[in-house]
Each structure stands twice: as C-alpha cells, then as structure tokens.
Amino acid sequence: MTSAEPAHLLTALRRRDYPLTWWPWRAMAYLATTVPIAGVLCLGLLVVGAPLIAAVNAVRQHGRPISLPLALFLAVAALAAVALAPFVSAAVAAVERSRLAVIDPRPLPARPWSGLAARYTTASAWREVAYTVWLGGVVPLAYWIYTLLVLIDLMLIAGPWLAHNGDRVVLIWSTADTPGEAVPYAVAAVLLLPVLWYGLGGLAAAQGAVARWLLGGPADGTALREVTRSRARLVDAYEAERRRIERDLHDGAQPRLTSLTLHLGMARLDVPEDSPAARPLAVAHDQAKGLMVMLRQIVHGIRPQSLTDLGLAGAVRELADESVVPVTVHADLDRPLPETVENTAYYVVAESLTNVARHAGATRADVRLTRTGDRLVVEVSDDGRGGADPARGSGLTGLADRVGAAGGRLLLASPDGGPTLVRVELPCR
C-alpha cells in the first residue's frame, strides 16, 4: 500500500524517501526562480543602503559630518523608497503567491486591490512590504552562504584530482600535496552531499514558510471587527429566538397543558374508582402533571424566572441558597445589565457551583459580581482539591465557548490541592 502524497514541501522533508521524490527538484526550481527576483530587489536596496552605510562608516572612522548633497540624496532616496515600497511589494506579493504553489499547493488568500489609501494604512500591505525587504535583504545572504557551502564541498570532492599533478591544494584549513592526502576530505564531502540535498529543501521550505506567514497573515482590524459584529448579531438573533420560544411555551403550551390537567383531575373525581376507565384516566392525569413539571423545567432552563424577577444578583443568591455547599455572594452592580450578559453570567455561576458540588470536595465557595467600567467580572472560587482541567470534561469547555460567544473571556486557576478560581469577563456594551 502506497502512502499518501505529501501536501507540501515541509511534510515531504519528514519522509524517508524524500531524496528520491520530485520534491527536491521542486525546491530547486523554487529557489532558482527566486534568484532573479531577489537579485533585483537586492540591487534596489543597495542603491539606498550602500551610500547610507558608507556615510555612517565615514562618520565613525573620520568624524567628518555628512555632506549636504549626500544628506539630501539619502533623504530623497529614503522618502522615495517608503513611498514606492507598498506598490512594489504589491507586485512582488502577487508573484510570490503564485510561485509558492511550486512547493506548497495549499491555497494562499490573495489581497484584492482596495484603493490607494489602503496601501499605506492596512496591516496586510505593510506585511507585504516586510516580505519584500526580507526577500531582497535576507534571502540573497542565505543563498550566498548555501552556494559557498556547495562550492566548498565540490572543491573537496575534486581535491584528489586537483592534487594529482603534484600541485598543492588548499582544503579548508589545511593543504594536500598528494591525492592520498586529499582522499579523506573527498570522502567526507561525498557523505555531506545528502545533507546539502536536504539543506536545499530546508532552505526552500523556510522561505515558503515566511512567505505564507507574511503574505497570508491575519486579517486586518476592519475584518476582525466585522467578524465580532457578526458574532454579536448571531448572539442577539439567538436571544430573540430564545425569548420567542419561551413566550410561546409560557403563554401557549403551558396554559393549555394546565387546563388539560385540571380537566383530567375533575374527570377522575366524576368517575367511580371501580370503573374500567378509572385506571387509564389516573395514568393520563399523572402523566399530564409530570409533563407540566417537565415543561416548567424547560421554560426555566431557557431563562430562569428568578433572573427576570430578581435580576442577576438576586438570581445568583437564589442559586447560592439551593447549593449543597455554603456559598457567599458579593454583588456590586449599580446599573442594569444587558440581557445577554445576565444570561451568560447566570449560567457561569450555575455551572461553576455545580462543578464545586460534584467534583471539588469543597467546604465553602464565594461568588463575586463586579462591574468595572463597561465590563462585568464574575468570580467563583472554592477551597476544594483543585486540579480542574477542561480536557477531562466538556463542562468548562462549553462554558468557555458560551463566554466567547458573548465576546468575553474565561480564566481558570486550579492548581493541585486548590483553591480553584473561575474568572469571567463580559463586555456590557
């Protein structure tokens, strides 16, 4: 059975059969096509960088100030480089995104042209500038070092033939006058050929990783804000649908079920106990009462009635009274809270107190509700055994997901031996 084809060069390098595949040749093609692009960019950087380095060296060595014409040239060149860099980098990034498919076929999102101002104000545009500078400054140096290593290795391999006519051959840190003296170096160089072959792929993979990191980086703040707004709209839509379901159950199904239960109860009173219909009627009456309790629990689970009647602080105190572990509630809420925030905070406290009762082995717990600025802070602590781990259950993970959907964050501190602290911060916008 043949193994699956690697998805990209970096995964191919981990395979034992890498030297015998097409991936080294693809890496070589990627590096070869990089040379002209990096060479042109390197020359462009030298136009600005070489005079600047020369001027700095002159000041350091001779203490002479920079002449006015040179200072004007450097200033104009620097301004021109900054002004043109976003446009040059746009062309370079477009070419690099298409070239990257040679070693990494995974799609890389393109950045559509979004106007002149966006080339100077968006993070993605300046990430492209950073990649262009890296491609023209760092990549040529890495290529030069690798090429030098290859030439040295080839020279060592050719050492026995170069020393054949009695000529002295310099082999790195020593010399060889005869082929016999050069043979050990040649053998070592031959053994290093696979290392250089892998190094070729490693160099290409590193360049591709930097290209993917800079050219396919995170979205701009505008896009992130739109994602946040979209999530907030989804949460609001969920809350509106939840309220509709609660209203329909409370105002529609629950009264009808209550009326049905009353009629069944009255019918039981009118039917003699020895009647054949008495037994089925009693069963139906009991099932209706059980269904009423279930429906009441469902309505309570959608939004607890205590939360509507008493507010968050009162509802949390009611939870504390019902807990099997003694709970102290400290509430400092001077203003009303959005309904979404109240619901999320209530379920955070309810789930945390449930975990305390079931798993913590605690003798007491504390709940703190504090509003600081535009954020509600909920803290639930206990003196239990600690060691709470989200990986061992879905409770804390689901709680974190619910808090994240409301735009907040959950922090957990639970060392072995306790105590445990669950802290949730929720925006109150």
Automatic annotation (TrEMBL):
Keywords: ATP-binding, Kinase, Membrane, Nucleotide-binding, Phosphoprotein, Transferase, Transmembrane, Transmembrane helix, Two-component regulatory system
CDD domains in the record: HATPase_UhpB-NarQ-NarX-like (cd16917)
Residue intervals of the Signal transduction histidine kinase subgroup 3 dimerisation and phosphoacceptor domain: 241-307
Cellular component terms per the entry's GO annotation: membrane
TM stretches of this protein: 27-56, 68-95, 141-162, 182-200
Domain Putative sensor: 70-215
Catalysed reactions, semicolon-separated: ATP + protein L-histidine = ADP + protein N-phospho-L-histidine
Molecular function as annotated in GO: ATP binding; phosphorelay sensor kinase activity; protein dimerization activity
Domain Histidine kinase/HSP90-like ATPase: 342-427
Gene3D superfamilies to which the protein is assigned, alphabetical: 1.20.5.1930, Histidine kinase-like ATPase, C-terminal domain
Keyword Hydrolase annotated: no
Cross-referenced InterPro entries: HATPase_C_sf (IPR036890), HATPase_dom (IPR003594), Put_sensor_dom (IPR025828), Sensor_HK_TwoCompSys (IPR050482), Sig_transdc_His_kin_sub3_dim/P (IPR011712)
Top EC category: transferase
Matching SUPFAM superfamilies: ATPase domain of HSP90 chaperone/DNA topoisomerase II/histidine kinase
Keyword Nucleotidyltransferase: no
Domain of life: Bacteria
EC assignment: 2.7.13.3
Annotated protein name in UniProt: histidine kinase
